[in-house]
Each structure stands twice: as structure tokens, then as C-alpha cells.
Specification:
Length: 128
Amino acid sequence: MEIVNAIGRRKAAIARVFVNEGNGAITINDKELAAYFPSEILQFIVKQPLLKLGVAEKYDIRVNLDGGGFKGQAEALRLAIARALVKINPEDKPALKAEGFMTRDPRVVERKKPGRPKARKRFQFSKR
């Protein structure tokens, strides 16, 4: 099997994954998964598509992660892994789609408007 790549985005985070056959090692920016995401919850989020299909020990995954915070990065990585698994085996798509792993979350930060302190907040109104 050749190397399969995919991209996942969430908020400002971008994850590029390269999947090939191996023994289940996940390397993010040249660090192990546990070193990059110390939180057990974020590690679980990243592994969800692999655990759903039962292929956690079958593939080695190399990741370039950039931008955003740790939660956004974990969810971007989950989407990228799910997309790569579908490229490897298209029959897995309905199972991953049912869990919501194939959906790109479109919510991003709203831009700040001129003449306002934040995107929607107004300065205090003074009648006099």
C-alpha cells in the first residue's frame, strides 16, 4: 500500500496526515501522540475514527499540524484521519459519516467590525 494523504480543518487549525501500513504509531510534528496531546480526552478524539473501524493498530500516521488551539487541532486531525481511511477503503464511509467524523465543522471566529470593540459588541451608549 502506498502512502495516503488527507487534509482536515477546524477553526484555524489545519492537519495534513500521511497514512501507511504499520503498527499504530501516530506522530504529530515529530512528537508522539501522548507528548503532543497530554490530555486523554484529546487523544481519544484523535483516535475515534480508528477505534470505530477497529484499525488502530494497522496504520502508522504522520501528521503536520498547524494553527489554532489544542481542541481545534485535535478535531482537525480527527477529520483528516477519517478522510484518509475513506480513501483507503471507501466502504467505511457510511460508518464514519453516521458518527459525524466526515463532517467539516464550518464554525469559525467572526471578524471584528470597524468602530466596534469586538465582532458584535458595541461601546456603551450614553444618552447625554
